[in-house]
Please model this.
Amino acid sequence: MATGAINAANLLRGPGILYSSPLGTAFPANTVAAGKFATTPFGAGWVALGSTAEGSEFSDQLSVEGIEVAESLYAVVQVSTGREASWTTAFAEVNRTNIKAGLNGGTSTTTGTAGTELTTVGPPALGSEVRNQIGWQSEDDTVRFLGYQVLNVGALGFKFGKGTDLASISIEWKFEKPSTTEPWVMYLAGTERAK
Model:
C-alpha cells in the first residue's frame, strides 16, 4: 500500500497548558523565535488552570440545512445556518479558581492564614454569570489557541471515584461572538506548522 510522506514535526501530542482570564485582559504577544512561542507566554491576569483528568477537547461545528425541491432526492443547495464552538475538559485540581471557572463566577471568601485557611465558594446569582477568556498552548510551544469569550454551559460536575480514580471538575465552555472579532483564533509557529 502506498503512503504519503509522514512529517513527525507536524504531529501534535500532549495536553498542553490551559489558561483563563477575565474579559478585557491583554492577550499575549505572538512572538516567535526559533520556530516556537515563548515558554511563558501568558502575562498578567492569565491563570494557568493546572492539570486535567484526560486533557481537553476543542470543536467547532457548522450547522447546515438543505433546500429541497420536488424534482430532486438531493438537496439543491446546502445553506449555513450557524456555528457552535466549545472547549471541554475536566480539571484534576480541585481549588477555588477551577470551581469558580465552572460556576462562571460566584462568591468566595478565605479566612485564616498559614494552614488555618477556610475558603467558602458559592454560585453566582442567576443572570450574573461572568464570561471569561481562555488560552491554550501546546507542550511543544508551536500551537496557541485563544478564545475571546466563553461561558460554561455544562453542569458543574464533580466526579468522585474509588482507589486511583481522582476527583475532577467537568467544564463545557461554549464560545460567544464578541462585537469586534470572531469567537476564537489559533496561531501556528514555525516553518513546519506553516505548511
Notes: Residues 15-194 form one domain.
